[in-house]
Amino acid sequence: MADASLLVDLIISKYLYHLPFYRVIEIYKELGGTISASTINDWLKEVAGKVKPLYDLLRAHGLTCDYVQVDGEHVAGHRQREAPCGEGIRVACGERDDGRPVLLL
Fold this sequence. Notes:
3-stranded antiparallel sheet, 5 strands
């Protein structure tokens, strides 16, 4: 398994900046690193398995609420070498016991 900082960078690149893995691989190659697509896929499957219990808890909590408010906000995409990579949606869903929103990005 990779270092946590590398995994976070891969996840942010993929899900926040909407970069396909082949572009992330090229960026790392330009920086002198080599990571195969199959290795990245294996790492992300492992990360998904580790965060699934948190997802399950959030989902179970959401299903017990009488009312769930969901709000989406468009977020401009990251630009790599002047090429836009698209837009994302930031989503806020539900609230904590103290009234603060639970944010799902």
